Amino acid sequence: MTGVSAVEAGVNGYAGTGDGFEEMHILWISEGMSCDGDTVSVTAASQPAIEDVIGGLVPGLPKVHLYNKVLSPTLGGEEFLAPFRAAASGDLEPFILVIEGSVPNEKINGDGYWTSFGNDPVTGEPMTLDRWLDMLAPRAWAVVAIGTCAAYGGIHAMAGNPTGCMGLADYLGWDFRSAGGLPIVNIPGCPVQPDNFMETLTWVLYHAAGAAPPPPLDDMLRPQWLFGKTVHEGCDRAAYYEQGDFSTDYNSPKCQVKIGCWGPVVNCNVPKRGWMGGVGGCPNVGGICIACTMPGFPDKFMPFMDMPPGAHLSSALIKPYGAFIRRLRGITNITANKEPKWRHDRELLTSGYDPRWRP
C-alpha cells in the first residue's frame, strides 16, 4: 500500500504552467455496486459547480467533455457508450476515468454476473465492470474513485456479502499508476461531499493543464487537505467533550460520543465544510458520525447507535477533569458578565487614570 506525500506530489510529474492538455474527457462509470448517490450529490456542488467546469467558466482548466449517464444529454444505449468504446480502443484521449460504486468479484459470479455496463458488440453478452476497468484504467490519464464504495468497497463489501466486493485500489492494486503517472485518487463519503469531489477533480484538471502539481494524497489515497483532520477536530460539539459534558439523546447540542458518534477517530471535514453551501453535515444537524469516509466502514463501526468501545475509557477519564474545568469556567463566566466597578456617574474618577508624565 503506497501513499503519496505532499513533497512527492509537488515534484513528481509536474510539468509547469502551459505544458498541459487543452481538452480533457471525463468517462464516468457508475455501474459499480452503487446507488448513484455520489452522482446525485455532486449536482449540489458549488465550489466549483460541475456545470461551471463543463461550461468552461473556471479559468485555467482544459475544455471538459463529461460522459455520465445521469447528466448525459444522449438517449442512452450505443450513443452514450460510444466514447467509452472509443477510449477502450485508444481512439479517445486523454481522459479521466471516474468510477462510482464498488467492484464485485466476477470470478465468483457462478453462471451470471454481478454488474455490467453495456453489451459486447460481438457476442451480445453483458460487459462486466471489471472488463471495462481492464480496458480503460491503463489508458486513463487519471483514475478517480468517487464515494466510499468505489474507494474501499463500502456497504457492498461488508462481512457476509456474496459478491466479494472491493474498492478500486483493491482491484487495480494500491501501487497502480495511471497513464499520467498518478495513483488512484480516492474521495470517500457515503455519499461523497459534493464540494470535496469537485475541488479535487478541479485540482486534477489544473494538473492536467500543467498549472498545478498532482494533488497530495495520504496513505489511503485520500486528498490530504480534505481528510487530514478528524471530525472531532472540526466539530462544533468538541468543546463539550473537553468539558466532559455528553448528550444522552439526539435532541442535545452536546458531544454525542456516548450515543454512538465516532468523530474523534474519523478522517472527514464535513463538520467544517457543511454539506451544501456550508450548511449541514452530520454532527451539525444532530446526527452522529458513523465513519462513512473510512476504509473500515461499515464493519468496524457497527452497531452504529452503540457507544464506541474507546469512548467508555475516554469519557470516564475526561469526566472529573471536565467537571472541574466546567465549574471554574462557570465562575469566570459570571465574573466576565459584570462591568468594571469604575463605570458610574458619581463625581469621583475611579478608573485608575493617573497621568504620571505630567508635572
TrEMBL record:
Entry keyword Cell membrane: no
NADH:ubiquinone oxidoreductase-like 20kDa subunit domain mapped to chain residues: 35-202
Needed cofactors: [4Fe-4S] cluster
InterPro entries reported for this sequence: Cytochrome-c3_hydrogenase_C, NADH_UbQ_OxRdtase-like_20kDa, NiFe-Hase_small_C_sf, NiFe_Hase_small_N_sf, NiFe_hydrogenase_ssu
Keyword annotations: 4Fe-4S, Iron, Iron-sulfur, Metal-binding, Oxidoreductase, Signal
Record bears the keyword Membrane: no
Pfam families, alphabetized: NiFe_hyd_SSU_C, Oxidored_q6
Family as reported in the entry's similarity comment: Belongs to the [NiFe]/[NiFeSe] hydrogenase small subunit family.
Name of the protein this chain belongs to: Hydrogenase small subunit
